[in-house]
Every structure is written in structure tokens, then in C-alpha cells.
Amino acid sequence: MVWAEGSARLLDYRPQGGEPLFVVPSLVNRAYILDLMAEHSMLRHLAAAGRRPLLLDWGFPEGAERSFSLADYVAGRLERALSSLGEPVDLLGYCMGGLMAVAAALRRPDRVRRLVLLASPWDFHAAGARAARRMAASLPLFEPVMGLHGALPVDALQALFAQLDPLAIAAKYRDFGRQDPASFRARLFVAVEDWLADGVPLAAPVARETIEGWYGRNAPAAGGWHLLGEPVRPERLGVPALVAIPGRDRIVPPGSAEALAGRIPGAAVLRPRAGHVGMVAGSSARRALWDPLLAWLAA
Predict the structure, then answer these.
(1) Low-confidence residues in the chain, pLDDT < 70
(2) How far apart are CA 189 and CA 185, in angstroms?
(3) In the chain, where are the structural domains located?
């Protein structure tokens, strides 16, 4: 650990050095999906290849953190963690972390050399506005519990996201039932399911900003997402960028991420044949993402 503040920690996967790759995961899931198993870890693979991955683990929001907004996370925790390193970094954002990375790169271009965005949404209505708006319309049902606890509970988050693809859960368990329980694929499935069940609540202000603003009003694509009064405009980015758009993503439909790639000047696009989680932690993740990412960074 090279930096800490509140519940957040910056974990160093190669203390002996290497080009720093600062990794920003989502706020709604545990960061260790990127270091899922000792023998199957994206960050350990990158470190073995000579990179210095630095993972920003947001932790479990407690106390005052439950009143945090996106500005508190991006302009506060994320920027202070970046500044603690004393040198520019390659900045990588995964899922929601990709939007946060875009905002940070726009605010602090002096701290970012290159930008990598993995399965990062932008147009939340790209696959149809009805499901996204239905999710946003469900949020008021959780206002009493958010008012009491200051956060959207894990179970509520899982229920909201299940609305996006309600048949997917049954399909993945049917597939698991056909696997050899002793196989690597079965052990990997269990590890991913344990990670999914080990969720974290989302600070109430962030829940309202993202679910109402992003899913309901499609604020990023509509030009209405602002951070501390400044619009977040990817077209203003001036660093080399790679956008990875998994073709089988049900959480972030390809069209949503393509909208982001189209707004970043000169962005390279990688299209892994994988899903949202499979791209970073699936059995084919090394071929689909890890090695192509290393090749892009080396180039």
C-alpha cells in the first residue's frame, strides 16, 4: 500500500518499479475482480510483464463517505491518490471507473500520460432507453433506506442491475451445471460469483447522480454531466487512448461504450470476444484483453 485515505487504499503490485499503470475500478463492486485468483489475475499478469499496476481500492464506504458525491471521489480521493505518486501515469478505468478516469484526465492532464477505458459506458440509452429509465424510476422506492443509512444497499443495487438482463442469471447457472466441478473453469465461476455477492453499498448522492442522471436522463451522452460545474467532455482529451469494448457485454452494451470511443480524438478501439466481467477475469481474458493491452502500452 502506497497511499490511503478513509476507506480507500492504493495497492502497489510491483513495488520494485516499472511504468506506473493507475487502475480505477467501479464504486459498486469490489476492486479485487482485477486480482481474482493468485493463478489468474489481470494485475499480476501485467506486473509480471514489467508494468507497475497501482489499484485504487475504494473500500467499504463508512461514516462521512456515505455523503460523498462523484466530485468527492473524483476531484477528491482520485486526484489526491494520483498526486501522491509524484509522476504522470497511464490511467486505466474499468466500467464506472472509466467515466471517473475520463473526468480525472480532463481535470488533471498533467498527471495522465495515456488513458485506457475498459467496458466504460457513455450513452446509457444506446441499447434502448426504456430499460434504463425503468431502472431510474425504481430509485425512489429506495429513498427511505437511503435516508436512513446514507447509501443504496448492496441488495438494492443487485436488484436494479438485474432489471437490465433478467434472464442472464438463470442462463449462467444452467451453464455452470454442465461443468466439471473440479475444473479450472468451474473454480473460476465460483470465484466470480463470490465476488459478485461481496458487494459494497453506494453512497446515496452518487446513487442519485448515476442512476437518475446517467440512466434516467442519459446525462453523459446528452452533454449534461458536470463535475464541480465543469462539463465532462471526452472530445477535449489530449492524450493517447485505448477503449476496450467487449462484444458480449450485457452490463455495458457495445453501443454505449462505442459512443465514448467516438468522442475521444484518435482513440484506438479493442473489441475483445468476451463479456463485461469475462474480459478482465474470464478463462480467455489473457488472450482477449491482458496481452493486447500490454501490446498497446508497449507501442
Answers:
(1) 161-180, 182
(2) 6
(3) 3-298
Q: Identify the pLDDT of residue 167.
A: 57
Calculate the CA 29 to chain-centre distance: 8
pLDDT at residue 158, as a whole number: 79
**Model-level pTM?**
0.93
- For the domain spanning 3-298, the CATH number is 3.40.50.1820
CA distance 135 to 209: 13
pLDDT for res 183: 74
Identify the DSSP state of 158: H
* 129: CB partners within 8 A, 6+ apart: 218
User: pLDDT of 210-225, one tens digit each?
Assistant: 999 999 999 999 999 9
The Cα 24–Cα 166 span in angstroms is 28
What is the spatial distance between Cα 233 and Cα 210, in angstroms, rounded to a whole number? 17
Cell 480521493 locates to 77
> Exposed, middle or buried, 218 (CB in 10 Å: 0-12/13-18/19+)?
buried
Other Cβ atoms closer than 10 A to 14 = 20
Q: pLDDT value at position 165?
A: 61
**CA dist list (Å): 143 to 77, 147, 160, 166:** 26, 6, 14, 23
- E strand or H helix at 82, and its extent? helix 79-83
